[in-house]
Specification:
Helix content: 40-55%
Radius of gyration: 34 Å
Number of strands: 10
Structural class: alpha+beta
Strand order of the largest sheet: 1-10
Largest sheet: 2 strands, antiparallel
Strand content: 15-25%
Length: 250
């Protein structure tokens, strides 16, 4: 929460960083209602005693002629032993300690919360981009920051990427690139085999790449990005350019 999430949230394009499965350490006090009833106490009395004994606030001040001094002491209980020795009431002149009516142990705030990665306990960090941000650029920035974040973690902790939503996007872009190159080569080959004319063959071999370059230029000026619709349009439009080129050659 302090070493990773805050730094990831500062990356341009990152909208929200959330954690899942993190178990914050805590001291759990399991009070026995029967023990309390025998001593004339209830759970509210225990809660009030714990809250009053574990505070972090100024205790008072000294007011002098030239300055005021604030007295501040941290009375927070930090260990299981301190909670066990906490006096919650007096009975027959003897102190009644919290350990007499409760079982106290080091545990987690929420014992029903957890996460696993490859059968190992983990804390999941979910990163979501801002609306309108380029997901590829955001992921690249996150990947560039991961080595620095790994260096700040304890030796027993390992930072790994479990899921990357851009892998399918990158694969789709690569597939379209291959399809476009294959389509251009196939068009040139089919045109040459059927027309047997070098001039007619050179027309689509030049028209298709120039049309694609011009299309990307217009997309760049208009601020358009590559997505499912634009990739599909480029693939379909390649066939239209071939048809028009053959018609013009005829």
């Amino acid at each position: 929460d302090t070493r990773i999430a805050q730094k990831l949230a500062q990356i341009p394009g990152v909208g929200m960083v959330s954690l899942a499965g993190g178990q914050r350490p805590a001291i759990r006090v399991q009070v026995s209602p029967g023990e309390l009833a025998q001593r004339g106490l209830n759970l509210s009395d225990v809660r009030t005693a714990i809250a009053a004994a574990s505070v972090n606030q100024p205790k008072g001040s000294f007011d002098g002629p030239t300055r005021t001094i604030l007295m501040d002491a941290n009375d927070q209980l930090r260990s299981v032993e301190e909670f066990r020795n906490l006096i919650i009431a007096w009975r027959d002149g003897a102190p009644l300690r919290l350990g007499d009516v409760a079982r106290i142990e080091n545990a987690a705030e929420d014992r029903r919360l957890g996460a696993w990665a490859d059968r190992l306990p983990a804390v999941l960090v979910n990163i979501q981009r801002q609306p309108g941000a380029n997901v590829i650029e955001v992921v690249d920035r996150v990947q560039a920051l991961l080595p620095q974040l790994s260096a700040t973690l304890p030796a027993a902790a390992e930072l790994a990427v479990l899921s990357d939503r851009t892998q399918s996007i990158r694969a789709s872009v690569r597939a379209v690139q291959h399809e476009l190159v294959f389509a251009i080569l196939l068009v040139v080959l089919v045109t040459f085999l059927f027309l047997r004319n070098f001039a007619a063959t050179i027309i689509p071999s030049i028209a298709v790449p120039l049309s694609l370059v011009g299309t990307f230029g217009v997309m760049h000026l208009a601020g358009y990005s590559l997505n499912i619709l634009t990739l599909m349009s480029l693939t379909i439009a390649t066939g239209f350019v071939v048809d028009d080129a053959i018609v013009m050659s005829e």
